[in-house]
């Protein structure tokens, strides 16, 4: 990953309390896993930003190196890597995600 790509990813994560690197957009997810994440965040009613990795191959590859996580989507909350669809579903079902999001948005 180039320094430029790393800086772009850093900035996206720092500038957005909840940042989702996904296939498609929040209005039109392009895969089921990305759709799961969007639906969970919409259910929580929280503001979040997305970047479509299908539109930017450098980000698509770079985010995998950045997080050391091989799959998309990837969710960052308050600058911290949370995980992908399965982790988001599990955290949501346990009530952990709601707490994490509330703390992030309050800070």
Automatic annotation (TrEMBL):
PANTHER family: GLUTAREDOXIN FAMILY MEMBER (PTHR10293), GLUTAREDOXIN-RELATED PROTEIN 5, MITOCHONDRIAL (PTHR10293:SF16)
Gene3D superfamilies with a match to the protein in the record: Glutaredoxin
Species of provenance: Anabaena azotica FACHB-119
PROSITE patterns on file: GLUTAREDOXIN_2 (PS51354)
Full protein name: Glutaredoxin
Gene that produces this protein: grxD
Family: Belongs to the glutaredoxin family. Monothiol subfamily.
Domain Glutaredoxin: 18-82
SUPFAM superfamilies in the cross-refs: Thioredoxin-like
Keyword Ribonucleoprotein: no
NCBIfam families noted in UniProt: Grx4 family monothiol glutaredoxin
Pfam families for this protein: Glutaredoxin (PF00462)
Alphabetic keyword roster: 2Fe-2S, Iron, Iron-sulfur, Metal-binding, Redox-active center
